[in-house]
């Protein structure tokens, strides 16, 4: 046996080992999601069964979930929150990042660091003041109350400013020479060039707004307007109603799955960018 | 650079914290309690009813909405807003007190509130629920208990009383029952028609099930912090002890009867006949048919029936006793209290309570949700619940237990939950983690005694 063959074999062995580790890890990640859908598809009397394959299949849990809760309404409301919150954050972040990157003005550094600083203040510290303010504005128990305090995201400003810093200043100067106003430069020059970054950030923000539980639970204290809160209504003193609970949870995951399948490349991009920059 | 960063951080922090001061407001003052006049026929009143039942979709919410609609139809001058407690817990029943507290602080409490018996002391002495005897008169309160035809069970009517006055009208409750799997009994050579009546028999039957079928024997859902203390109190009372002295001045859960209860249960875990499981695991394992017996609240019966389906048959028996003693079950459940600050609302609140605890309402609640009717005579009424009772073979042992029922005693003072949790943690440590029962209970009792009003002295 030559040294080359030995080296080849050991590298193949290592690669195989790597695949085994990856396979086991991905199984560990996927299994709970599989179990969620498996439980939602079991017949009501089999809900506590531990068999890996749900058989006979039944959609009774879905029917029950729709009968007991306004599932479509909840999904719609959650969608509205996710889309408006993501769009709002994008707009604010875009305007702020544009200002920071395209102009020099007094206290610029301080203001920028303040934006970054808000990222360091934990949500738990700001939630009470936010809550009290919403209460005084009469926005508790409304979807607007859930959306408005999320509209400015330090993450968005940070990411877009980094992107804009890499944007060629010559293009901005050329646009100015053409006689374009700064507003029209933003929309006709900057935004088209930033489209991939905006898409990636938008998806990231929409997914996290869709999955948010705690803040909606504080603002919408008594309603089940969003799906993550609606799940609670299948839990109670008399035991948990696992079938419809899993069915609703399964439906809540679907839009994120679909978004992921359609925009897979952008999403991976989004996570990589936000992780690396 | 460093200075700029520091300044930025300070400015941000200032922004973030400056609004915190807005959150503090003073506690609302208690309205004086005098007899409230009847409502005039054209007097419009709107009240708020807060109940954790509205937090659970399906039969619970639907039945209560139906009852409220019927009430509003009968009382066109009263409109009722029904709401669940505010809060972030998965189980809305755990948010009841904090929700009420925050609304009292804001000065606008709900008018009628459904609260657990475990919170009775706190509800009366700290949250200042209104004494119904003063509000509408003792005669009226007692007349409501007597009902039109079917009175409350004797053991149920005083559960919401404090020092001789009625503050809460008991509304729903359940008792601890021994549920068992008839199939596993047969497979283990036991007689499914003669379930165990004492804890020694439970242990023997559990051992037989474990040995013969390989499935778990028995689980007692009264021994963990998550289970709270309602049926632990039942076990201790059945062994001749109490968790707190009758004058409520001293904790007594480290006395010999409690130690004996904990030791008996610990032995079952040690010998492998009781699985070392959490409450939820045990309930689901029983529903799946993998556990022989479970001592559980009758409120969970629906879950068991759903799990059993046509795969195994559910049996139910009264709570087992300790050799030579009478078993004394305690009740879990909730009563209706009034917190209105306005006289018209107080009267309307009482009208709602009368309606919700009427014969008619109990018939609806029992048939649609399955709760035990507190007007027990209804089960013999052909126009009431007779048919429902005939179809529900699990009802009889439950109703029979009411004869010996004793109240679930709430712990005193503002730290009542810490006292309860400390006691149950000690029980859990002994039963499931093998701590010495006497030592564990004694040290928990010493710690908890300092939390009693007046430091337990």
UniProtKB/TrEMBL annotation, chain A:
The family database entries (InterPro entries) matched by this protein are listed as:
MetI-like, MetI-like_sf
Q: What are the residue boundaries of the ABC transmembrane type-1 domain, all occurrences included? A: 75-263
Report how it sits in the membrane. Multi-pass membrane protein
Q: Does the keyword Transport apply?
A: yes
Q: What is its main location?
A: membrane
Pfam families recorded: BPD_transp_1 (PF00528)
Q: Which CDD domains match?
A: TM_PBP2
Record keywords: Cell membrane, Membrane, Transmembrane, Transmembrane helix, Transport
| Cellular localisation | Cell membrane
Do the record's keywords include Signal?
A: no
Q: Where are the transmembrane segments?
A: 20-37, 80-103, 110-133, 139-160, 186-210, 242-263
Report the family membership: Belongs to the binding-protein-dependent transport system permease family.
Per its record, how is this protein called by name?
A: Carbohydrate ABC transporter permease
Record lineage = Bacteria, Bacillati, Actinomycetota, Actinomycetes, Pseudonocardiales
Automatic annotation (TrEMBL), chain B:
Name the InterPro entries for this protein: Bact_solute-bd_prot1 (IPR050490), SBP (IPR006059)
Which family does the record claim for this protein?
A: Belongs to the bacterial solute-binding protein 1 family.
Pfam families this protein is in?
SBP_bac_8
Keyword terms of this UniProt record: Signal, Transport
Name the PANTHER family for this protein.
ARABINOSE-BINDING PROTEIN-RELATED, SN-GLYCEROL-3-PHOSPHATE-BINDING PERIPLASMIC PROTEIN UGPB
Localization (cell): Cell envelope
Name it: ABC transporter substrate-binding protein
Where does the secretion signal sit in this chain?
A: 1-21
| Primary localization class, coarse | other
Taxonomic source organism: Prauserella endophytica
């Amino acid at each position: 046996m030559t040294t080359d063959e030995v080296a080849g074999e050991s590298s193949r062995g290592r690669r195989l080992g790597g695949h085994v580790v990856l396979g086991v890890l991905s199984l560990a990640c996927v299994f709970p999601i599989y179990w969620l859908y498996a439980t939602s598809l079991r017949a009501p009397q089999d809900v506590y069964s531990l068999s890996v394959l749900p058989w006979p299949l039944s959609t009774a849990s879905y029917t029950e979930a729709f009968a007991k809760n306004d599932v479509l309404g909840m999904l719609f409301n959650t969608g509205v929150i996710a889309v408006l919150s993501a769009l709002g954050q994008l707009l604010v972040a875009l305007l702020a990042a544009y200002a920071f990157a395209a102009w020099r003005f007094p206290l610029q550094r301080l203001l920028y660091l303040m934006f970054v600083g808000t990222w360091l203040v934990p949500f738990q510290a700001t939630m009470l003041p936010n809550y009290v303010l919403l209460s005084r504005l009469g926005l508790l128990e409304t979807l607007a109350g859930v959306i408005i305090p999320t509209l400015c995201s330090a993450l968005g400003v940070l990411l877009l400013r980094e992107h804009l810093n890499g944007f060629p200043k010559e293009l901005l100067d050329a646009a100015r020479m053409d006689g374009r106003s700064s507003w029209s430069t933003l929309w006709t020059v900057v935004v088209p060039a930033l489209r991939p970054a905006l898409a990636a950030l938008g998806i990231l923000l929409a997914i996290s707004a869709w999955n948010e539980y705690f803040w909606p639970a504080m603002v919408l204290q008594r309603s089940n307007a969003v799906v993550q809160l609606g799940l609670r209504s299948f839990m109670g003193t008399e035991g948990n109603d696992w079938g419809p609970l899993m069915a609703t949870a399964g439906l809540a995951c679907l839009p994120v799955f679909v978004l992921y399948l359609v925009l897979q490349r952008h999403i991976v991009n989004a996570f990589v960018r936000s992780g690396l920059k | 650079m460093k200075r700029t960063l520091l300044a930025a951080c300070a400015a941000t922090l200032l922004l973030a914290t400056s609004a915190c001061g807005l959150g503090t407001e003073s506690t609302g003052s208690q309205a004086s309690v005098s007899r409230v006049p009847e409502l005039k026929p054209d007097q419009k009143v709107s009240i708020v009813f807060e109940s954790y039942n509205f937090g659970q979709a399906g039969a619970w919410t639907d039945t209560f909405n139906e009852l409220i609609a019927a009430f509003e139809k009968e009382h066109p001058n009263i409109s009722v807003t029904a709401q669940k407690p505010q809060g972030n817990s998965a189980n809305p029943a755990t948010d009841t007190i904090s929700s009420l507290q925050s609304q009292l602080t804001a000065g606008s409490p709900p008018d009628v509130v459904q609260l657990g018996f475990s919170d009775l002391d706190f509800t009366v002495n700290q949250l200042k629920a209104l004494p119904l005897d003063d509000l509408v008169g003792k005669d009226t309160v007692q007349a409501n208990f007597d009902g039109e035809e079917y009175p409350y069970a004797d053991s149920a009517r005083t559960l919401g009383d404090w020092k001789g006055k009625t503050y809460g009208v008991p509304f729903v409750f359940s008792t601890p029952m021994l549920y068992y799997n008839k199939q596993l009994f047969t497979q283990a050579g036991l007689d499914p028609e003669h379930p165990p009546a004492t804890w020694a028999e439970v242990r023997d039957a559990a051992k037989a099930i474990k040995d013969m079928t390989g499935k778990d024997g028995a689980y007692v859902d009264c021994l963990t912090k998550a289970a709270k203390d309602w049926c632990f109190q039942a076990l201790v009372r059945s062994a001749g002890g109490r968790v707190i002295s009758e004058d409520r001045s001293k904790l007594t859960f480290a006395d010999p009867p409690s130690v004996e209860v904990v030791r008996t249960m610990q032995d079952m875990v040690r010998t492998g006949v009781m699985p070392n499981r959490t409450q939820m695991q045990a309930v689901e394992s029983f529903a799946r048919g993998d556990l022989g017996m479970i001592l559980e609240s009758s409120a969970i019966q629906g879950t068991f029936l759903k799990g059993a389906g046509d795969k195994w048959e559910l049996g139910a028996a009264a709570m087992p006793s300790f050799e030579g003693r009478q078993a004394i079950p305690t009740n879990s459940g909730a009563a209706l209290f009034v917190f209105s600050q306005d006289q018209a609302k107080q009267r309307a609140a009482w009208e709602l309570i009368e309606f919700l605890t009427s014969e008619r309402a109990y018939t609806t609640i029992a048939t649609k949700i399955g709760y035990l009717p507190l007007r027990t005579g209804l089960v013999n009424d052909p126009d009431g619940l007779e048919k429902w009772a005939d179809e529900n073979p699990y009802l009889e042992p439950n109703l029979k237990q009411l004869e010996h029922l004793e109240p679930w005693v709430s712990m005193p003072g503002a730290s009542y939950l810490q006292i309860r949790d400390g006691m149950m943690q000690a029980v859990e440590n002994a039963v499931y983690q093998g701590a010495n029962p006497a030592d564990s209970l004694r040290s928990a009792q010493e710690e908890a005694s300092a939390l009693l009003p007046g430091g337990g002295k």
